[in-house]
Amino acid sequence: MNLFTELRKLVIAELGAMVEAGALPAGLDMTAVAVEPPRDPAHGDMATNAAMVLAKPAGQPPRAIAEALAARLAADPRVARAEVAGPGFLNLRLKPVVWQGLVKAVLQGGTDYGRSDIGGGAKVNVEFVSANPTGPMHVGHVRGAVVGDALSNLLAFAGWNVTREYYINDGGAQVDVLARSAYERYREANGLEPEIREGLYPGDYLIPVGEALKAKYGASLLDQPEDVWLAEVREFATEMMMQMIREDLAALGVTMDVFSSEKALYGTGQIEAAIDTLRGMDLIYEGVLEPPKGKTPEDWEPRQQTLFRSTAHGDDVDRPVQKSDGSWTYFAPDIAYHHNKVKRGFDQLIDIFGADHGGYVKRMKAAVSALSNGRVPLDIKLIQLVKLYKNGEPFKMSKRAGTFVTLRDVVEMVGADVTRFVMLTRKNDMALDFDFDKVLEQSKDNPVFYVQYANARINSVLRKARDAGVAVDDATLAGADLRLLDHAAELALIAKLAEWPRLVEVSARGNEPHRVAFYLYELASDLHGLWNRGNDEVSLRFVQEDAGTTQAKIALARAAGVVICSGLAILGVTPVEEMR
RNA sequence: GCACCCAUAGCUCAGCUGGAUAGAGCGUUGCCCUCCGAAGGCAAAGGUCGCACGUUCGAAUCGUGCUGGGUGCACCA
């Protein structure tokens, strides 16, 4: 139940009636008519811009339309007051019974309250993480993983058919480097001195890989030329890395639906097919690129290359898909991979990239636009970096020494729940500070704690009522006499709960899961505020002398708890019942 | 040189896709509390939304041009 869409229906219906009555011209476009929460609650519970939006096409002054509409809306049993304000806003005040009914609806809906069907079952593919399978995931990957997973949860909740996907970059030179690095560890496992040359991966995490290679191959690969062992070791090491990455993701609570392999695109004609598809659209040609103006690379020399005419689809320059020796560039399999996603029938694609890949956005969108004839939109979310702090001091990590903070380190230090919540407390394109101490602080300054504490308080009050012998199961609470919830502070909290379905839709439409985290913080704040007022005004406490009143109050608390749990579920955070 | 991202209170950040007097936390100032309904509460001060034009009933939000910061810029993935 979304009160805003219901009231919008009412507004549209009354506008239609005004057309019928000849008060408005026929054929008006109503799509811009919105019913929203007003910025200032003093203005009312809801506001509509209908009169202002329609003034010009209807050829009438906005206030005149607003006055006429107000008179009609005021007759609805749900509307307590309809007032024209400002340039033509129409502010609505709802009757308490509407809010009381909402509490009941929340309790009956449970965590399905707020679920939406705006996605219409459309198939959306969310590609995220896609870290190179050459080592453990580090903090840089964590944020992308959390955002992608939470976004997937959000879209699923809003009615999309979501596929979470990880693209394994196992086709390029970096997995050869992995194989060579693992081979040295294999030699080490056989009692030889490893030669970790410059350019190889020095990390200790390859030691177990070396040992596993020894267990499988014994000494048979020793002193063999590279072309004998490279392919086998590469596959073996890549598989072990992916195993590790899967476990790391699991530790963070992330489960992928599909792992797609870059290597699998080679030798199957898929790359050729994708390029041929583009060629058939006259988007592939042989040519020589101009050097970038202002900054010509030292070793620049004109080269004849196979180019993708990405400029035909909004890119700034055309992009090479084949090197001068005829082999594919990295971009070619990326095109084939996205072609593959389009062919699998997705209606929408979302890629989550690190901000350092911002340069690829236009060419990737160009490729998808061309390959799908503009049918499939591709949204690319760029994730800004995470700066680590420890007690307010920058937390240094040295890549050169091979000591970097891994995903596993973060999860072990602060837990998956805290990690996930904090990663969503900023818009994806804003840099985020992550302080190992502050995120664990038990105070109002810490949004994670603040939201969890709200839920704990709700559970605490439920326990207390139960101990006092009051039935507080959801069915009983839904049947309580909710008319007892009539205090302005209580109705205000309900109004906040009424925003939840709308917030889900807005967040999903914009692919912005962080909004959920901010909403939960606000909801927690309202809950704490009401709780604090109970310190002075006993009548606002949740547990009362009289069982019926207690049930009504607890129904509100429980409804708030339902929404908090629902929101936390989207973030992938486990609600806590007690603060300990 | 070009492209993309960012710029909002002293600090860290929201701002629901164009709405009303731009919000929150921290910090500051002033009261209150020290009660496990505990891990504080209430209130106040604090703003040229980087700058300048433009679009319209209306702009932090859209467009153009600047300023400052970040990222990336042909056979590396």
What is the overall shape?
globular
Query: Radius of gyration from the CA trace?
Result: 29 Å
Strand order of the largest sheet: 7-6-5-11-12
> Please, what is the average pLDDT?
93
CATH level 1 class label of the domain at 100-116 and 442-571: Mainly Alpha
The helix tally amounts to: 19
CATH superfamily of the domain at 100-116 and 442-571: Isoleucyl-tRNA Synthetase, Domain 1
- CATH topology group of the domain at 100-116 and 442-571: Isoleucyl-tRNA Synthetase, Domain 1
Proportion of strand residues: 5-15%
Structure, briefly:
The protein is of the alpha/beta class and 580 residues long. The chain is built from 19 helices and 15 strands.
Provide keyphrases for this structure:
580 residues, alpha/beta, Gyrase A, domain 2, Isoleucyl-tRNA Synthetase, Domain 1, four-stranded antiparallel β-sheet, 19 helices, globular, RNA-binding
